Please model this.
Amino acid sequence: MATAKGSKVKLDLSRIPAHIAIIMDGNGRWAKRRFLPRVAGHKQGMQNVKTITKAASRLGVKVLTLYAFSTENWKRPGSEVNYLMRLPVDFFNDFMPDLIKENVKVEVMGELTDLPEPTRQASEKAMADTANNTGMILNFALNYGGRDELVHAAQKLAKQVQEGTLKPEEIDDSRFSSALMTGFLGPMADPDLLIRTSGELRISNFLLWQIAYSELVFVDDYWPDFSPAALESAIADYQARDRRFGGL
Ligand SMILES: CCc1cc(N2CCCCCC2)n2ncc(-c3ccc(F)cc3)c2n1
Model:
């Protein structure tokens, strides 16, 4: 078994999960514990996105989906939302050369039309500038909600039936998966491994259809403290499980 260099755990590099999704939670509590403002946690959290992106890419992960902003996050104080909405701009200003060097392809999924113009433009430019990259897909969920995604998929398919281009009996798992925001990922749309940081044991309206058979790993680290070693440990947990996909 080939193992990751310098790793504390023995990873089978031939069984790295193709698609890892992460709920990056605990940024505000990370700051509070250090008597810093919440936005300091978000800033450190963004730095850690860069660290974990590189670590996942180098381990051979094919898709890394990160829950950056949920449809419910608009309820936060205006000053915090304004700060958060600038992070994608800062991320790409700082990290685009590294993303190009890592051959990472950026995707951003969610209700992007509701975002501030600079946030949406930075996301669209990053997707355009990395469109020809063939390495890991870094897929940000931005202004994303799982129920919102299911409703939009149902509406899309209902419209096709109404237009006469689709029969109701033709709507099956595959057709529904293709109608979701993760449809562009094809056979890799469903995460093999979902990680949530900060000790919370909730799914929080994330990838509700896609995680039907995902392995779930909950870690106590706050997101800013979630290290490449912690990622490898979560992957080792995944590799130690015996996935049955509903079978015996
Ligand atoms: C819009 C809210 C938000 C918050 C945020 N945080 C704060 C909370 C979560 C922890 C990570 C740091 N990050 N980190 C990267 C992005 C990002 C999103 C899209 C994109 F195309 C490029 C980068 C980000 N976006």
User: Anything to note?
Assistant: The chain is about 40% helix and 15% strand.
